[in-house]
Automatic annotation (TrEMBL):
Any Pfam family matching the protein: DUF1244
Species assigned in the record: Hyphobacterium marinum
Domain SMc04008-like span(s) in chain numbering: 32-97
SUPFAM superfamilies: SMc04008-like (SSF158757)
Lineage of origin: Bacteria, Pseudomonadati, Pseudomonadota, Alphaproteobacteria, Maricaulales
Protein's name according to its UniProt entry: DUF1244 domain-containing protein
Amino acid sequence: MKHDELSPAEQDALDAAAFRQLLAHLGRRTDVQNIDLMILADFCRNCLSKWYRAAAEERGLDVSDDDARERVYGMPYADWKAQFQTPATPEQLAAMEGRKR
């Protein structure tokens, strides 16, 4: 079946399944830091949580930043940071600075 042959409901279901898989993958890859994602892909877990909150807002749903982050991180953001976030290396900081040019 081609993409353009899917109904809107089928497309939404596939999009949602792919998003859940992305969250599960990121949940398993806690070794991958947000700065690495930003350097390589120009988005990170925080971006996903902002997009999630914006999608809720577009649909008239009240989802806070904290709730959106918890959905993406699988736990409160402060807990994730304490358990998994490491200080940025000089190389990571330089790569981020290089992206701004």
